[in-house]
Amino acid sequence: MTINKTFENGILTLSFEGWFNTETAPEADPFIGNLDEGTEHLIFDFEKLEYISSAGLRKVAAAAKNARGIGADFKIINVGLAVMSVLKMTGFTNKFTIDAK
User: Fold this and answer.
1) N or C: which end of the chain has fewer CB within 10 A?
2) How far is C-alpha 28 from the geometric centre of its chain's CA atoms?
């Protein structure tokens, strides 16, 4: 998995590419574990994410919790059909702001 980070005007965007699974989920830790106090919005861009497993979902939930802990909003954008079906099945669409492609 590849994660690209951009930070501009209080908006931290993490763009994910590939598979977010048990093997790759730890790669997200440095990005979501220590959010900058200047972060007002945390955005996960899933445009190029092909697959997400329960390990990836746990990291999404942890990121949202960390963002809320510093008073930041959390949003997932550009979600494809395969990943969206997992998010719907697990109830994530009821817990987070999620925008499809």
Assistant:
1) C
2) 9
